[in-house]
Automatic annotation (TrEMBL):
Catalytic activity: 7-carboxy-7-carbaguanine + NH4(+) + 2 ATP = 7-cyano-7-carbaguanine + 2 AMP + 2 diphosphate + 2 H(+)
Enzyme Commission number: 6.3.4.20
Role according to the record: Catalyzes the ATP-dependent conversion of 7-carboxy-7-deazaguanine (CDG) to 7-cyano-7-deazaguanine (preQ(0)).
PANTHER family, per the entry: 7-CYANO-7-DEAZAGUANINE SYNTHASE (PTHR42914)
A Pfam family recorded for this sequence: QueC
NCBIfam families: 7-cyano-7-deazaguanine synthase QueC
Residues in Rhodanese domain copies: 3-52
Cofactor note: Binds 1 zinc ion per subunit.
Protein name in the entry: 7-cyano-7-deazaguanine synthase
Amino acid sequence: MTTNDTRAVVLASGGMDSATAAYEAQSRGYDQLYLLHTSYGQNTAQRESECATALADHVEAADFCHVETSHLQQIGGSSLTDDEMAVADADVDSDEIPTSYVPFRNANLLSMAVSYAEANDCGAVFIGAHSEDFSGYPDCRPAFFEAFQTVVDVGTKPDTDIELVAPFVEWSKTDIAERGLELGVPYEDTWSCYRSDQPACGTCDACAFRLAAFQRLGERDPVAYEQRPDYAD
């Protein structure tokens, strides 16, 4: 079995970045998408799962795989998985690693995605990480993805050729939203809030970056918010 350039795995978190990555994959000729969604004990797991499932319908996914990764919750160390750690209010100018960082999460997720890709003859794995993530999350940096590509190349069968694609790694959230609107991404069926299933809080880091992106583009974010602060520059 050899991999091909019409099938791709997309890590589908339920958020706007991964949804845009799925549509970007289609725009690049990957017409058979295999969506991998994981629940790891995060606060908004149910809502994210619903959004990832909706995305699978929107892109007419070839397959949808939902995996429970409860070990990340058992390990802890993140405000997304540990009830004793509060989700912090937004601080978009901070260079510190936020409490929402889940230790080495992307390595866990990408490992599963590569397994999924190799088993299904996929030529690529797409992840929606971007530049505003890697200012705070070490496993979203370009160097991390470059290193992981080497792991993929070394750790798969000789006739397997899987490209790790992070199309937005040098983009801002605003750039992603602009591209998604151009591609017709159904952002009403995506979820970014770290705190609440409904409505979104509007004041955590994830809400702040998302709202700022739409505000800078002069567009209204279609999901419901408890608060809609003005984050645009």
